[in-house]
Amino acid sequence: MTRPSSGRPLVISDCDEVLLHMIAPYKAWLDEAHGIDFSMTDHDFSKAMRHRHDGSLVEPKEIWRLLNAFFDTEMYRQMPIAGAVDGINALARDADVVILTNLSDDRQLARTEQLRGVGIDARVFTNTGPKGPALKAIIEEYRPSRALFIDDLPQHHGSVAELVPEVTRLHLCGEPLLAPHIGCAHQAGHAHARIDDWSSALPWIMDRLHGENDD
Q1: Would you say 143 and 43 are in contact if contact means Cβ atoms under 8 Å apart?
Q2: Same domain, 103 and 191
Q3: Does residue 213 register a pLDDT over 80?
Q4: What is the pTM of this model?
């Protein structure tokens, strides 16, 4: 059901590595609970996890099991990215803010409560796969005056750029363990900017939401 337009701008933000650290607490948990070393040396997440006892790679099926287990029991370990809580709440004063997170639907409530616990009270949309279709549906529901999307993964910017090109797109990865190894959506032409810290990102976002600068 389409809601009446508020006439306000809309910010659609990812959660992990944009608002909350994920890889850092995941790495600590793998070390403590499973004897697994996690080290990103390139963009290939599947090659980052090795069993400490023999150096063998963790099998893909086990990677998914461990990721699911982390989100089942360890989300309390996730702390806010520096500046993210103040930044997103500053945006919420003059814009609608929603979270679009790639978690299964059964984790929507846990993610909502997790964010509320660190001071972010926002509607949470869950998703699997590329984010373009989900973001398009959100835009159709809110009908904002303008919209801005924030995510740490370049493939989601590509998906949004293809389906909803009028949305301003900011590539932001606030996790230093991950940021150097992620391809840049801005360089690929799928995001309008790449800014990895909230202190620099917030004025850029404000200018795009409320100023005349749309590029």
Answers
A1: no
A2: yes
A3: no
A4: 0.94
